[in-house]
Design a protein that fits this description.
This protein is of the alpha+beta class. It has 2 domains: 9-134, Gcn5-related N-acetyltransferase (GNAT) (Aminopeptidase), CATH 3.40.630.30; 138-291, Gcn5-related N-acetyltransferase (GNAT) (Aminopeptidase, 3-Layer(aba) Sandwich), CATH 3.40.630.30. The protein is 29% helix and 30% strand. It has helices spanning 27-37, 43-52, 96-106, 123-128, 151-154, 167-178, 183-192, 228-239, 255-263, and strands at residues 20-21, 53-59, 65-73, 79-87, 113-118, 132-142, 159-161, 195-201, 204-213, 218-224, 246-250, 267-277, 289-291. Strands 1, 2, 3, 4, 5, 6, 7, 8, 9, 10, 11, 12 and 13 form a 13-stranded mixed beta sheet that branches. Helix 1 crosses helix 2. The two termini are 29 Å apart.
Length: 298
């Protein structure tokens, strides 16, 4: 067991838990824990998180998971994303959530800003650890996209199916929007995608969109585009002809997009605060990032 000591002792109220780095052998246990919380991550999502980031956890003496938290860092170490902070109901209020979060904070490169999306329960803790709210994330769900068929918006001449030759261009477009290079993350996310499209202007990739199956819904995102008009066409291409439930998480409120989503049978499911520690220093351009992959990925 790789026990993780805290170097952030002033932030820790209780260091009595043995926090360890979880591994590929813990995938099923982490996913079962997620299911208990009814969060929308697949087993494949858990594998991607473990592959591209760090997952810290605490187990009882029988090896049962009591809590976990995850951190993902990216190639240029400008931004890290923190999430999956979960504590078993029997252990809440004893400092485990704080200790797990501190383990993640300690693993962040000094140069990086840390982004997380906070539930109402966790926001007070995160504020004590130096996180400040920067925007509101809105989660929209459509139970059956089959109720609408936007063929006119789907068949746009600037949209075409993603090709492997587009990969480096997609990485560059994503970096300008997100603020860090996510080469490894995008490679795995595209490989897992149900659908992937790019937006072309003057023979260059200027936007892209993915849809990926999660545990309960098909997640629409990431989507990076230049404006809302492009986004609505991209959404139509991603969902056309599909059945089942779709979810899209937007990292900032966009009135025009909100209006379009509601008119096309998407309902606002939940909102949460996006919070940042160590400032963003203008590292990202949120106006071009219209949908995130999942809350842990930012």
């Amino acid at each position: 067991m790789d026990v993780v000591p805290s170097t952030h002792g002033a932030l820790c109220v209780n260091d009595s838990y043995k926090v360890e780095r979880l591994t590929e052998t813990d995938v099923k246990a982490i996913h079962a824990f997620i299911c208990d919380f009814d969060w929308d991550y697949s087993e494949n999502d858990v594998r991607q998180i473990l592959t591209t980031g760090h997952v810290f956890g605490c187990k009882d003496d029988k090896g049962v998971l009591l809590g976990c938290a995850a951190l993902i860092t990216y190639e240029k170490e400008n931004i890290a994303t923190l999430g999956l902070v979960m504590v078993d109901s029997t252990e809440r209020g004893r400092g485990l959530g704080r200790q797990l979060t501190v383990a993640c904070v300690d693993a962040v490169p000094e140069s990086a800003s840390t982004i997380l999306i906070a539930t109402g329960q966790g926001q007070q803790l995160y504020e004590k650890l130096g996180f400040v709210p920067v925007s509101e994330v809105s989660s929209y769900v459509c139970q059956d996209v089959g109720v609408w068929g936007r063929v006119d918006e789907r068949n746009h001449p600037n949209i075409r199916a993603y090709d492997s030759d587009d990969f480096e261009a997609v990485v560059r477009v994503d970096e300008r929007a997100f603020g860090d290079s996510r080469h490894e993350f995008l490679k795995r996310r595209i490989a897992a995608a149900k659908r992937a499209f790019v937006w072309i202007e003057d023979d260059k990739v200027v936007g892209y969109g993915l849809s990926v199956s999660a545990r309960k819904n098909v997640m629409i995102g990431p989507i990076v585009c230049q404006n809302v008009r492009q986004v609505t066409h991209m959404i139509c291409s991603l969902v056309h002809g599909e059945t089942g439930s779709f979810r899209m998480d937007t990292p900032h409120f966009e009135p025009e997009l909100d209006y379009w989503l509601h008119n096309n049978h998407f309902k606002l499911y939940a909102t949460a605060q996006m919070m940042v520690r160590n400032g963003l220093s203008n590292k990202e351009e949120p106006s071009t990032r219209y949908a995130i992959a999942a809350q842990i990925f930012g």
